[in-house]
Structure formats: C-alpha cells, structure tokens
Write a sequence for this structure.
C-alpha cells in the first residue's frame, strides 16, 4: 500500500493506493480545504499526523453507525443466506447473498484458485457464506441452496461417500453449530438469481479476472518444470507446452513459418486490437483479416480470433460505413495473370469530398496477380495525367506491364493514351459495356479504398487525400485470401 500526500497552504489531499502486478489502483481519497484559522505550514510528516488525528475518528464513528444500522437486532431477527457455486474446465467460482432482517443485503462473489466439481463449489459457497455471517455476529441463520445433494448431506438425510465431500461436510457441520438456530432448504428465489449467478460469470472467462494470466502455467513449466495437478489437464498441457519458449522472461509462441510470436495478456491484447484495427495504419478490417494481420505483426493469445471478431462487430464507425449488398450471388469471373505486375486494372474514383488542393478524384491501378494498389489524388483526370501516372507509378517502379485493362473513359481511349501504350508495347484492353466484369478487380479495390476512407471521415473530414498513404499501407500489410 502507498499513501500519496499533497500539502499546500490552503488545502491538504491524500490518496491511498494498492500496487498489484506493477499497476497502482486507488483505494481511498480525501481532500480538505483549510480555512484561514486552520492554515498552517508544516513538514509533510506533521501534516500526515494532523490528517490521521483529524479524520480517522470521525470516519470510524460513521463506519460504526453504518454497521449497527445493517446488523439491527441479531438476537431476535433471522438472517437469510443465498448461495450458489459454478464450475467448468477453467476453474470454479461461488456467489453469496446475505440478507438482514431489515432487508439490507451483503453481496459477495469469490473465484476459487483451484479445480473443483460443482458440488465442491457449492460447499465452498456454503462455508464462506456461514463465515461471512459469523463475521457479522449473526445468531439465527436460514440458508437457501439450489443443490439438493448438499442440502440432504447437511440435514443428515444422505450419506457422503467421496473423501473430499466428507471433508467439506465436516467443516460445514462445525460451522453451522456456531449458530443459535440454523436451517437449510433447497430453493432459489428469482429475486436473488442475479446476485448468486455472479459465480457463473466469474468462471466464464478467466482472462477477464484480475491476476488471471493464461501465460503463467507455461512460464512455470519452462522455468521450473511445474505441471498442472489435474492428470488429464497435465497430459493436454504436455502436448501444448513445447510450442512455447521463454526468452528473457518473456513468453513466445513458436511459429510454423515465421518468427516467434510474442504472447500477450488481456490488457496488452486489447491495446494491439485497437491499434491494428483503427490506429494510424489501421484499415478497420473484419475479424478474420484483423486476426491474421496481428499474427503477421508477431503477436499471439489463445482467443485472438474470437476477440478480433467481437472487436470489429462493436466498432461504431465500421457498422455505419459497412457496405449494403443488394445484388444476387453471381459466379466469379477470374482473369488469369501468370506473373506479378504484368496485368493492371485502371479506373477513376470520384467525385469525392473536396480535399486540400481542390482534389476530388482518385486514379487507381491494381495488379491482378498480387492485388497491389497504386493510387493518387487529383484535381482532374485527363489523358496527360493518366500517361504521367503510368510512367511515374508503374513503369518506373515495377517495369513495363504487358496489359492494362480499363473502361471506355475518354481519358483511357484517347489517341494520346493509345499511342503511348503502343510505343511502350503495352496492350490496352477495354471492358465492354455489356460485360463490365472484365474490370471487376479495379472496381473491387476502389470499393476497399473508399470504404476505408469512409470509416475515417468522422475524424478526417475533407482531409482524406492526406490519409491515402496510410490507407494504402494498411491495405498492403493486410493478408488476403487470394494472395495468402
């Protein structure tokens, strides 16, 4: 525990924090403004002593008043305890609701750091609930449990056979003898289900719990050779564990055809999801593409695919800018390109919102083999701009292409454009109006770029042209099914 103290001439403030796993969490905070008569200059130790002497008694008195109000008359009233336990392959958890004669409730949920069956979890809830009641000096207690087996054990109607069950029953019997009157019944009231079912929430996802880290068993095995106590889990663990390696106390997963993947905990995974999906170079990809991209970046955690899908589904701008498909399903019309950068598709996108420099169009070219995209924002697109773009962005970077496929735009089929292609021995193919699928690759990539820009429009406004390089970078680094 750490106590941070700030003292100025007219005020004093104190915050109490708890440190856990390198993070600090606030526990209590108090601040007081000093009137002129109270203003004093003192060293911090004296201010701390004044703080303790001034505030602790009053706080203690108020706490005692609240406790007395909650307890009421323990001698005559009967308290009610509702208990439930849950268990699965990931662990066990218990929930308890203790209600006073006046209707006040104390709700508590506990995660068990050990493997347990459902009946063992029920016993844990029963024992912890009775201990909680004893801490409040309860004398008369009535317990409701949904486990018929547990109730009949405690009421001596069934005989416990299992050794663990016998031990739990012995402890429970000792605890119940400490009450003046005690009764347990098999029943669950609907009004308390939302409280006792918190036990099930505690064990539904172990990665959401503070202090729970899926990497811990693997690190313990790699450091000390420690295996899980459960025999079946140990056998499964032996198969998985060799796929991990510990380097400088950092856990990595071996990759089949790439570098080691750094293993992340829940908090780190959420940061990576946010950055890769909607960061500076994020392209707001769907769940499958997002998880594949994270793998390419060198990160891993067990639930990354499900987390990526959920993250993409819950992102507001992705839902607003999602494309609505109204056309019926149609077979694909592949155009075969035997090697990279031999066949390109060319198209114009616009008009778009006016960007700095009065740029309202995009000239887009796409390689049919690698799906590589080249884009440039322009104020207007004429034949001279098309020729300059092909020279600057295609020929000078990827060599002379064999074919360019375009529509029948005047910029593409003009004499100057056809003459330029003829001089460089480039075949210029035009898609017919009655068969527009010929240039479908260019249209598909236009849609990708426009959708990525639409998802950024809330933040960018008319500055979409300045973001084109980042949109291209995010698309080029995103794995695609067609290219692997």
């Amino acid at each position: 525990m750490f106590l941070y103290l700030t003292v100025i001439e007219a005020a004093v403030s104190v915050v109490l924090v708890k440190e856990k796993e390198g993070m600090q969490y606030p526990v209590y905070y108090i601040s007081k403004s000093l009137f002129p008569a109270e203003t004093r200059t003192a060293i911090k130790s004296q201010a701390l002593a004044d703080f303790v002497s001034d505030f602790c008694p009053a706080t203690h008195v108020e706490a005692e008043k609240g406790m007395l109000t909650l307890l009421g008359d323990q001698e005559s009233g009967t308290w009610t305890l509702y208990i439930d336990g849950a268990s699965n392959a990931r662990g066990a958890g218990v929930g308890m609701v203790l209600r006073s004669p006046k209707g006040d409730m104390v709700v508590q949920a506990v995660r068990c750091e050990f493997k347990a069956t459902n009946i063992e979890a029920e016993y844990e809830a029963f024992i912890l609930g009775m201990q909680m009641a004893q801490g409040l000096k309860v004398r008369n207690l009535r317990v409701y449990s949904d486990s018929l087996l547990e109730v009949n054990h405690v009421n001596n109607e069934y005989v416990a056979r299992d050794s663990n069950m016998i031990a739990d029953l012995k402890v429970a019997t000792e605890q119940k003898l400490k009450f003046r009157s005690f009764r347990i019944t098999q029943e669950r009231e609907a009004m308390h289900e939302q409280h006792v079912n918190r036990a099930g929430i505690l064990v539904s996802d172990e990665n959401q719990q503070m202090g729970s880290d899926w990497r811990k068993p693997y690190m313990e095995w790699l450091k000390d050779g420690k295996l899980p106590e459960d025999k079946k889990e140990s056998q499964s663990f032996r198969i998985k564990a060799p796929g991990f390696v510990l380097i400088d106390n950092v856990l990595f997963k071996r990759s089949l055809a790439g570098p080691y993947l750094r293993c992340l905990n829940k908090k780190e995974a959420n940061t990576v999801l946010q950055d890769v999906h909607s960061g500076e170079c994020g392209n707001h990809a769907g769940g499958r593409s997002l998880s594949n991209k994270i793998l390419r970046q060198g990160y891993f955690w067990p639930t990354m695919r499900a987390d990526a899908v959920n993250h993409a589904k819950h992102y507001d701008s992705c839902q607003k800018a999602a494309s609505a498909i109204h056309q019926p399903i149609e077979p694909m019309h592949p155009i075969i390109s035997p090697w990279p950068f031999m066949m390109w598709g060319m198209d114009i996108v616009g008009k778009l919102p006016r960007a700095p420099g009065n740029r309202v169009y995009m000239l887009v070219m796409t390689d049919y083999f690698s799906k590589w995209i080249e884009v440039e924002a322009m104020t207007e697109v004429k034949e001279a701009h098309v020729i300059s773009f092909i020279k600057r962005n295609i020929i000078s970077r990827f060599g002379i292409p064999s074919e360019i496929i375009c529509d029948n735009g005047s910029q593409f089929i003009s004499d100057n454009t056809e003459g330029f292609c003829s001089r460089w021995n480039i075949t210029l193919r035009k898609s017919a109006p009655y068969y527009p699928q010929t240039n479908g690759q260019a249209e598909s990539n236009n849609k990708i770029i426009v959708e990525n820009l639409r998802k950024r429009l809330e933040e960018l406004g008319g500055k979409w042209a300045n973001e084109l390089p980042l949109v291209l970078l995010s698309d080029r680094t995103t794995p695609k099914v067609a290219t692997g």
Observations:
- The domain at 216-320 is CATH 1.10.340.70 (Endonuclease III; domain 1).
- The first helix runs from residue 44 to 71.
